Automatic annotation (TrEMBL):
Signal peptide: none
Protein name stated in the entry: Glutamine--fructose-6-phosphate aminotransferase [isomerizing]
Cellular component aspect of the GO annotation: cytosol
Part of the intact protein present: 244 to 609 of 609
Molecular function terms from GO: carbohydrate derivative binding; glutamine-fructose-6-phosphate transaminase (isomerizing) activity
Purpose: Catalyzes the first step in hexosamine metabolism, converting fructose-6P into glucosamine-6P using glutamine as a nitrogen source.
Quaternary organization: Homodimer.
Keywords, comma-separated and alphabetical: Aminotransferase, Cytoplasm, Glutamine amidotransferase, Repeat, Transferase
Residue ranges of domain SIS in the record: 42-182, 215-356
Top-rank EC class of the record's enzyme: transferase
GO process terms (BP): amino sugar biosynthetic process; carbohydrate metabolic process; fructose 6-phosphate metabolic process; protein N-linked glycosylation; UDP-N-acetylglucosamine metabolic process
Length: 366
């Protein structure tokens, strides 16, 4: 049942090219530069009427929400807030009929996320769910749903469910931006074409597996890790750190790279591996200078950079080169080596990869 893989988590990591294809299947309208979402339950006029989107989720799904804020603000020019569901539901949040709630949940059963949907409904807002499990409680209570179609995820640490959430959010952003007019047909065509290339890029990133394993061997005895990124790479840094914590039990923190000098820089010494997400994008120069600050303090930089970036490769202690890709798919490509890193460190430590201690796949109680 593990299809020749040693653990479900590894099988699910390697299933991702197919999983994202399933998320997109029958939904991309390439010639129109648009997306068809069968159960969205919102008209174009309704979408154009929202002044704000509130995303609520927990854990890994919350990280997907943070990437969603970046994409929705960038592509749709609508203001987006992202909340942890257990905070949102108890805060008396400002929500009205002009607000669209977007609830993200793999299981569709997370108690706090379900309560957030009820809270929003109580205040007259509409709620859309991004869920993996069909007919789950959150999917049923929401006014519309975008299913991720990742297939059953058995590993407790979420991998393919997260990546397909990112795809579902991209599809939603494209649909939303086309409905409101924020995204032109031409831009829509560009974006659908970038999404269509995604499975091939994931295949390429998966080929880093052996290189990631040797990095895991080199660093798995460290007691702390720092993960740094900017823009859409910041939530991926959070997710990389969470994955490592969950299955390797190593303390890890994700931070926006620009925040480093406001505190975490004090932690950096010659024992601290720092995973830097340094793709050639609009944040490149800034992240490179953060990387230099880490190196100047003796930190051991593991860089995830764009293929051919010899400058970064020379500076870092370890390097993983990723295929150059469009911004809309870059957060997904960055996620792959971070999943593999957490996986290999966990295996080297002899941990139960698929069933980490104290964690449950579905958190149906508060
Ligand atoms: C992390 C993980 C958890 C879940 C969180 C929300 O690998 O699996 O952080 O993401 O418990 O679960 P869902 O998405 O089912 O609401």
């Amino acid at each position: 049942e593990k299809g020749g893989f040693r653990h479900f988590m590894l099988k699910e990591i390697f299933e991702q090219p197919r999983a994202v294809q399933d998320t997109m299947a029958g939904r991309l309208l390439e010639e129109e530069g648009n997306v068809y979402l069968e159960d969205l339950g919102l008209t174009d006029a309704e979408m154009a009427g929202f002044s704000r989107i509130c995303i609520v989720a927990c854990g890994t799904s919350w990280h997907a929400g943070l990437v969603g804020k970046f994409l929705l603000e960038e592509l749709c020019r609508i203001s987006v807030e992202v909340d942890i569901a257990s905070e949102f539901r108890y805060r008396n949040p400002v929500v009205s009929s002009g607000t669209l709630l977007l609830a993200i949940s793999q299981s569709g059963e997370t108690a706090d996320t379900l309560a957030a949907v009820r809270e929003a409904h109580g205040k007259g807002a509409k709620a859309i769910a991004i869920c993996n499990v069909v007919d789950s409680s959150i999917a049923r209570e929401a006014d519309g749903v975008v299913y991720t179609h990742a297939g059953l995820e058995i590993g407790v640490a979420s991998t393919k469910a997260f990546v397909t959430q990112l795809v579902a959010i991209s599809l939603f952003a494209l649909r939303f931006g086309r409905a409101t007019g924020a995204i032109s047909r031409e831009r829509g065509i560009e974006l659908t074409s970038s999404l269509l290339h995604l499975p091939a890029f994931i295949e390429e990133a998966l080929q880093l597996d052996t290189a990631v394993e040797s990095i895991a061997r080199r660093y798995h005895n460290s007691s702390d890790f720092l993960y740094l990124g900017r823009g859409y790479s910041y939530p991926i840094a959070l997710e990389g750190a969470l994955k490592l914590k969950e299955i390797s039990y190593i303390h890890a923190e994700g931070y926006p790279a620009g925040e480093m000098k406001h505190g975490p820089i004090a932690l950096i010494d010659e024992n601290m591996p720092v995973v830097m997400l340094v793709l050639r994008d609009r944040h490149y120069e800034k992240v490179v200078s953060n990387m230099e600050e880490v190196i100047a303090r003796g930190g051991r930089v593991i860089a995830l950079c764009s293929a051919g970036d010899s400058e970064t490769a020379q500076k870092a202690e370890a390097v993983l080169e990723l295929p150059s890709c469009a911004e809309i798919v870059a957060p997904i490509i960055l996620s792959i080596p971070l999943q593999l890193l957490a996986y290999h460190v966990s295996v080297l430590k002899g941990n139960d990869v698929d069933q980490p201690r104290n964690l449950a796949k579905s958190v149906t109680v508060e």
